[in-house]
Every structure is written in C-alpha cells, then in structure tokens.
Amino acid sequence: MLPNGYVSFSHGGAHAVAAYHPFLAVGVDIEGPRPQLERIAPKFLHPEELAYLDGHPKREWLLRVAWGAKEAVYKAARVKGLAFVEEIRFTHWPDDKGAFSISVPGNGDRLGTAYLVRAQAVSTSESQSDCLVTAIQIPQPLHVVVTGPESCGKSTLAAGLQETLGYHMVEEVARIYMASVQRAATTDDLLAILDLQQEAQKKALELHRTAAEGSQKIRPATVVVHDTDEQTLLLWMEDKFGPAPKKLRDAADQPLAHLYLLCGAEIPWEPDPLRENPLDRDRLYQWYRSRLETLGRPFVEVSGNEEVRLEKAQRAIAKALGHLAK
Fold first, then answer.
1. Cα torsion at 117, 37, 88, 191 (round to 10°)?
2. Among 11, 86, 221, 277, which is 20 to 30 Å from 151 by CA?
3. Beta-carbon neighbour count of residue 249 at 10 Å?
4. Which CATH architecture does the domain made up of 6-138 adopt?
5. Of 21, 53, 122, whose CA–CA distance to 325 is shortest?
6. Quick one: 73 exposed, middle or buried, by C-beta within 10 A (0-12, 13-18, 19+)?
7. Which CATH number fits domain 142-325: 3.40.50.300, 3.10.360.10, 3.40.50.11810, 3.60.10.10?
C-alpha cells in the first residue's frame, strides 16, 4: 500500500501499465492501433495541432501520441472538466527521444502548470506496437504548505524555513484580514480571504519567476513555503458553517501544494483574539490529517519543540528535492 503520493493506471492494446511518484502528479496512458482517432481528431486536437499533423509522414503514430499525451496529462492534472482541445496544448512535439511538453491553465487566475511528457513504442509483434505515454508535473517551484489546527506553530515554522533556507514565503492572509474587520468571521469573509490568499500565491510565483529569469547574481528559490492554504479555509468553513460553497471546495481540491507539513497540537495553546478552539485541537488535528489523506497529497507530521520541528521540516523538504533531482 502506498501511504501517499500519486499513482496512475492504464490498459490498452496488449499492455497494462502503472506510474507512481511520491511528490509530483503523474499520468500514464497506453494505446494499441486506433483507426478511429483519425475520425475524432478534431474533438481532441486544437486547429494548430491539426495543422501540424496535416500531411505528416508519421500522422497515424502522432495521433496516438497526441491522444495518449492528453489522456495522461488529464489524469495528472486532476482538474474537473479540463478540455482536451483548448486547455491541454502541445508546447513542443516529440523530439528524437520521444520527449516533449504540454501545458495546462492554472486554477482560476493562477499561473499554468507544465508537464514533461514522453512517448515510446512498446512492441507487441514484429509489425505492431502499443504507444506508451507518461506525463509528470514540472514543479516551478516546489510548493511546501505548513498546515494544522490553530496555535500549533505554523507561522513560526514557516518563518523559520524562510529564514534558514532563504525561500519565498506566502503569509497567512486570514490573520491580516480578520484583524482589519475586528469581528467574528462570516462565510463571505472566508470567500474573500480565499481570493486574497490565491492572489498572494500568484504574486509569490511571479516573484519566483522573475528571480529565475533575472540576473545571474540572483539565486532563484527552488521552494515556496506557504503559511497555510485553502485546506485551512475549507475546514474552518465546514467546522463553523457547514458544507463549503463550490468555489472553496474546488480550490481546496486543486491546491498548488506538492508537500504538506502537518504541525502537531502538543505545544501549549496561546490565547489570541482570532483563536477559538483551545480545547479542541486534537480533534481538529485528526480532521486535518484525514483531509490530507483524502486529498492524496504527500504530507509529513512534524512535532516536538521549535528546533526539532524545523529540523524535521528541513529534512522533509530535502528529501522531496532529492526525488525531483532524479
């Protein structure tokens, strides 16, 4: 059994295949000969992609590659209703080694996501082969989210990671927002906080991209640390008001995060005008844990004093970056 991570399955032609990665979204598809792809090509290829294939000597094979690539990316993206024609687009066609890339739009106004895709022929006989396509997300950058119930040291840990490792950080917007309104939160407040949190995420990505494209003297960060994300808003909404609106549910189901650091509730609770649950943190901790398990995103539980937590978090991030380097 896989404790977490990403897995994808496919069967077609004479084969069944599976793909797995502990931190990055993956998708896989395998197709035998499919003459019907010629007939339905306009339903899954953009006009520019159709123009590229017009008269191409390897048209039949590339049709299988294109179908398999869009299937694999659709599985990896996990975005409901993603349109094959308009929203999964080739940015490069296969090179001599069968490698190419595909992009999909971001969640709402977020920056889009790119996938490294590889196609290869898997022989079934001397004259026939199946088309195997795998897609893996290209992290730009790696998103690490610090999460957990209130007064569990999230902001302290996120700030510690920023200070010791030099990563960009997305601060928790909810605290700033609620301090400005000075009253109990409403459902409208939580949706407003969602918009502001996603805007802060977008700005952090733009800063990262600017650093990566700027002067060689600037060492671009490989990680962005988030002090909470949409999961906190979702659990806040459901615990206090009941079922979350579709906008918040969709955002929480499609987070940027590659890795969650789940902070334990064993440290002393500190009173704060914005905190409400001094005696309920263990229940909320289990709720967070269950949510991450349901979401299927990798997470590491961090507990202990401030120094121990920081060390555990640094090791978890180093492990994730090690997997990416492979």
1. -120
2. 221
3. 15
4. Alpha-Beta Complex (3.90)
5. 21
6. buried
7. 3.40.50.300
Burial of 239 (0-12, 13-18, 19+ CB in 10 A): middle
Residue 220 contacts residue 184 (beta carbons within 8 Å): no
Measured distance CA(295)–CA(5) in Å, rounded:
10
Contacts for 15-22: CB closer than 8 Å, 24+ residues apart: 15/122, 15/124, 15/130, 15/132, 17/132, 19/134, 21/136, 21/323, 22/298, 22/320, 22/323
User: Structure pTM?
Assistant: 0.72
Structure tokens at 219: 């060492």
Question: Which pLDDT tens digit goes with each residue over 223-266?
Answer: 899 999 999 999 999 999 999 999 999 999 888 888 999 999 88
* Among candidate residues 244, 250, 261, 263, the one with its CA nearest the CA of residue 300: 261
Question: For 135-156, how does the pLDDT look when each residue is reduced to its tens digit (9 = 90+)?
Answer: 988 777 889 999 998 888 899 9
- Quick check: 89 and 70 in contact, CB under 8 A? no
Three-state secondary structure string covering 138-153:
ECCCEEEEEECCCCCC
Q: What is the dihedral of CA 280, 201, 21, 122, to 10 degrees?
A: 150
Count the residues in the chain. Answer: 326
Could you check whether 6-138 and 142-325 share the same CATH topology?
no
Strand order through the sheet with 142-147: 168-170, 223-227, 142-147, 259-263, 299-302
Q: How far apart are CA 71 and CA 73, in angstroms?
A: 6
Classified as helix, coil or strand, 14 is coil
User: Is residue 197 within 8 Å of 212, Cβ to Cβ?
Assistant: no
Domain range annotation of the chain: 6-138, 142-325
